[in-house]
Amino acid sequence: RREPLALINLKKKNEETGEEELASRLDHCKAKATRHIFLIRHSQYNLDGRADKDRTLTPLGREQAELTGHRLASLGLKFDQIIHSSMTRATETTEIISKHLPGVRKISTDLLREGAPIEPDPPVSHWKPEAVQYYEDGARIEAAFRNFIHRADAKQEEDSYEIFVCHANVIRYIVCRALQFPPEGWLRMSLNNGSITHLVIRPNGRVALRTLGDTGFMPPDKITRT
Fold it and tell me: Signal sequence span per UniProt (predicted)?
């Protein structure tokens, strides 16, 4: 959606000369800024909860969120926004992190809710959702990728720093798609609770992975992957 050539009307010509002003119009559509995307996995939560509202953060999970918030604040970056999954564990993680980043607006979205993005290859024996779940969740998670992971708008002048608080499956799928890896390999990665994954999207559309699932800022006894 951000390729300059796709953003202009090639049939439009200069009214005076009848010639296309392709070069100048392309330049007008080119991104100038870099986007920094920080994908945060929610903290440890109560696995015994039946409904989403019951799957609240554990005391350790709240500690993890505090540590993640402190780490993000220590980077000294001017964060533009925090977009988070509307699920309880992601919302609670966001609330704790945001205390360390006062003034940064929070936006909730259903697109980032946990789910089954695509059937993994190779398959695993311990996790086999119904086939219909891939169709229901996969389309939504792919929509989240297309909606949030792209080069900066041409009007954006300065580099941006955005936080997305969501779930392991969503983050792993987004990383594969952003790096143009086969998305079926998403389950080969493992992410700790409260971990930080940092993607960089350059103006030319190239994407780099700075960190994947970083929890080096947490004491070893605070690290979990539930």
Answer: none
What letters, b where the CB count within 10 A reaches 16 and e where it falls short, cover 177-214?
bbeeeebbbbbeeebbbbbbbbbebebeeebeeeebbb
Give the containing element (helix H, strand E) for 116: none
**For the segment 91-140, what is each residue's pLDDT rounded down to a tens digit?**
999 999 999 999 999 999 999 999 999 999 998 888 888 888 999 999 99
Query: Can you give the residue ranges of every domain in the chain?
Result: 1-30, 32-222
3-state secondary structure of 135: helix
Task: Find, among 149, 215, 205, the residue nearest to 176 by Cα.
Answer: 149
Burial of 100 (0-12, 13-18, 19+ CB in 10 A): middle
CATH topology of domain 32-222: Rossmann fold (3.40.50)
CA distance 53 to 57: 10
Contact 29, 4 (CB under 8 A): yes
